Amino acid sequence: MRPQITYSSPTDRRLTALVRHLADDPFSASLQMDSQNTISPSPTAAFNGDSVFANVVQAPEDPILGVTVAYNKDPSPVKLNLGVGAYRTEEGKPLVLNVVSRAEQMLVNDQSRVKEYLPITGLADFNKLSAKLIFGADSPAIQDNRVATVQCLSGTGSLRVGAEFLARHYHQRTIYIPLPTWGNHPKVLTIAGLSVKYYRYYDPATRGLNFQGLLEDLGSAPSGAIVLLHACAHNPTGVDPTLEQWDQIKQLMRSKGLLPFFDSAYQGFASGSLDADAQPVRLFVADGGECLAAQSYAKNMGLYGERVGALSFVCRTADVASRVESQLKLVIRPMYSNPPLHGASIVATILKDRDMFHEWTIELKAMADRIISMRQQLFDALQSRGTPGDWSHIIKQIGMFTFTGLNTEQVVFMTKEYHIYMTSDGRISMAGLNSKKVPHLADAIHEAVTRIV
Amino acid sequence: MRRFLGRRWMSASAVGWWDNVGLAPKDPLLSVTEAFIADANPNNINLGVGAFRDDEGKPLVLQCVRDAEARIAGAEYLESISRQGTLKLVEESVKLAYGENSDVVKEGSFAGVQAISGTGACRLFAEFQRRFQPESRIYLPVPTWSNHHNIWRDAQVPQRTFQYYNLASKGLHFSALMDDVKNAPNHSFFLLHPCAHNPTGIDPTEEQWREISYLFKVKNHFPFFDMAYQGFASGDLEKDAQAIRIFLDDGHLIGCAQSFSKTMGLYGQRVGCLSVLCVDKNQATAVKSQLQQIARAMYGNPPAHGALLVSTILGDPGLKSLWVKEAKVMSDRIMKMRAALRDNLERLGSAFNWEHITNQVGMFCYSGLNPEQIDRLGNEFHIYMPNDGRISMAGVTTGNVDYLANAIHEVTKSG
So what's the architecture of B81-315 in CATH? Predict the structure, then answer.
């Protein structure tokens, strides 16, 4: 069960030893055993040996993770996993950024570092730097101390804490989310106590933005309703409004007093530029208005497993910001007391050091560029095959995902005949693609589209 | 760069969203540390801190942790590694709690998930309880860690309390506890501290645990254990889990929250485990899937680094035995400080009975000091503790124990 990575440094030898240690463990193998192993209740079992949770049924599997499960089972040598929401290199491997390894090594080598509890709101440096990253170092909101930022567990955790706060303190419980959106959005928001409605977003006919529908739906939302906005690289469609369209959205939202809640999971990953990708958010802050922003460092720093994120409230005044922060603590403390130290320390180390920050922007741009290149290659390959249809959305859409426009039958066909795995809505992860596999994918799309309509 | 003046927009907008948001009360335990930090006096002592300190009053990173950290550096960002790390953490955690050779562990008849330390484990369980036993309530001991009340409240599970601490004896109010357990409706959910009760430091004896377990069987109650101090009570990991083992022997299908914050000094890493015992593996799979769903809507996956640290330490015989040694050193220091403090107070000729200082176990001592005395300790002697009189023995050192004893003697001798 070794990863197919070849390294040669002491770290790598430790790494392979670690993998061996985890993989050879008989217990983890036995977890995949069939479920035939039941135990007979012991003679001293409580009441009739039954559990108070006997009524609990198996939860449905997460559809996106199910794709990877199916992919893993497939023995075909030409199989391709385009369901994965994590970045892969040209060799199809997960990537640890050099600057992240460096930062981590610095932390490990620093013997004076301790592992004490972070404050409830998290690492202060990290919070300040995160706010600067998204709102801009010269943001008037930051300079006026009107921003309350708390460290949370990646984007999911930031959304949940923000939504819980809103459910408690905001006068409107309805949140509008785009159709479609990330599968976990409605679950997180609903559990937090908000009531979810949809606004039109994706236009299947153009494979682009249904701008008219968006404006109509937000226009008919009740005053004060919350609106979830993907800051850039909309997941799953890859369709983003232009800056002009963002401006119109902002004007409409301000005129109706709608509260913007940004989900920023791909800053720097979409265009390759951190500032460009933050423009929509900054647009909303520039007019002095209030908003929320959830940030994730999962993709843009490759810190998926460390759960690093931040939630910011841009408020009217500094006094309000400090009261909001005090109430956020009351949401967080009974949830997990305080956030994890490791990932945030790495991010703070990188963000506060000019050289490391610069190095990060270069690595980030390289990731974004590779994805953009994959888009171009796939588009060109379909053009050269004369595949029927307009495939320009592949290069117009932005970020990790492309909403191909393939229907469920076509997707099933591609999985069965070409061993290409994607979610049934036709979403492919460009991050999972590499140059060698482009022809295979193009062939598959071509055949799917010509044989199945 | 042109800047929009905030005012122009604000006057045209709706009322500010958060004008109604009041300033939240500060967390009682954290404000102790804040007061301590604000005090520049060289004699200041922080007895609020729930984290271990060495004899110089400094935070401690265990050597086994440093070794493990060097080993795993660079590894955890690979998703396959972090997934396996989580599995391994759960596997090692339940061995610690239930015993390596327990049937539960051997047969895998438990649902185990990594959680965000003890808080996260309790919260996951509370949410699960609300979802699948919506009519149930949770019974919390009086007193208990203050955040327990917040957790079950935010999970919207109604709370009741059961008697635990006996103010008069500064010990366990066993008969009242048993009465409350008996009088609760059948099938009630109870939160129990298996060792080193926080904040009182008072644990039932083995015999008392057996009686409690028996009564729980009669009443068909659900026992939920919050184990945050395994190893800190007696210094012996197995002994500290005894209450849980007793319940297991009696066939209870318990729930258990485990924290590695104190046990391994991994406070900021947020490593914990929630396990729920089930009738069989099928049920365990179902329960686990539901727990994962709850976690997914809260924070997605748990953080990888801490889990990898713990699983590396517990999975390597050399590191594990180093950890056991280091854990014992920590608990020995605390016991030594208890003895020293009591000793000093007795030698000062204090009229009060300070036996409870050494009778109580774990990190905390429920001193019995009243709010006026606590205030004086803060104002006159620069000694800080929460106003329930809970002293963290971890904040006591050979360097300050005399000063502390003197101060306590001063504020108690007139009362």
Answer: 3-Layer(aba) Sandwich (3.40)
